[in-house]
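Example record

The entry below shows one chain as it appears in the dataset: sequence first, then C-alpha cells.
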Amino acid sequence: MTSSAGQTMRAKIGVSAALATPFTASGEIDWPAFAAHAGSLLGSGMQVVTAFGTTGEGVSIPAAARAALYENMAAGGIRSGQLVECVYGPSSADAGAHMRRSFEAGASGILLTPPHYFKQPPEEGIYRWYCEAFQAAGASCGPVILYNIPALTGVTIGPRLVARLRVAFPEIVAGVKDSSGDWAQTTALLAEHRDLAILVGHEGHLARAVREGASGAISGVANFAPKLLATLVSGEDVPLVDAVLEKLLTLPVVPAIKAVLAARTGRADWYRTRAPLEPITDAGERATCAALAAMAE
C-alpha cells in the first residue's frame, strides 16, 4: 500500500517546529511576535511549522482565536502553505468544522488529536470519530497527520487503527505524529506504515527512527535548537540531545521551552503561558533554561 498523501507530507516535514505561542500581557496571542518566531524557524530551513500543538498550548486557546491563524500570520509574511495546524475536538463535528476552515484558508496539513476526555475508548469508537471528523471537513479536507499522544489524550493510535483509516481515506491520512515516547510503538508504526510521514515526538529516539524509515519530527525542542534537530533528522546521532533532554525534562516542558526562548531572545514576554500552565519564575529553573539556551547555540 502506497500513500500519495503520505509521500507529499514526507517531502514537507523533515523538521517542523511545534511552535511555542507568545502571548500579550492580557493573554491574547501576540500575532506579530508569533509570525516573527515562525519566520525565523522557516528561515533556518524548515518547509513548514506547526501551530497550536501541545507546545503551542493550543488546547488552552479558544477555537475562534485559533481560526484567525492564517490571516494574522499572512500579515507577518507567513504563507498559509507554510503552516500545519493542530486541531482538537473533542466532538468530531467541531474538529471537522475547524479543519474545513483551515483547509479552505490554505493550510499545508492538519495535526489532528483524537477525542479526549473519555480515556482509551474502543478502537471502533475512535475509528468512527475520525470518520465523522473527516466527513464533517467535507471535500476541502486535505492531508491529516494523526496525533498519538496517549499521556495527554488517554487514546492510543496504533498500527491497526491507522491501517483502517488509510484504507477508508487514502487521500487524507498522511502520517502519524508519535509522541508516545514508546520505542516499541514507533517501530510498530514504521513496520506497517513507513510510506506515511511517521514523525517522532521524542527527540532522543529521532535519529534512530529516521534510519529505520521515519520522516522526521514535529518538535518542541526545535523552537530553540533547529540545527540540532536538522542533524538528527539526517539520521546522525548527536549526544547533545540527551543532555538537552535531561535538563529540559526536569522542568514543566512547555513553560521551560518558553523560558529558554526568553533567555535566548532577551524578551521576558516569552515567559507568559495560558492557564492551566504557569510560567517559570524560580531563579534556579530560569538559570537551567538559560543554560539550555546556551547549549543550543
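Notes for this example: The chain has two domains: 4-236, 239-297. The CA atoms of residues 54 and 116 lie 14 Å apart.
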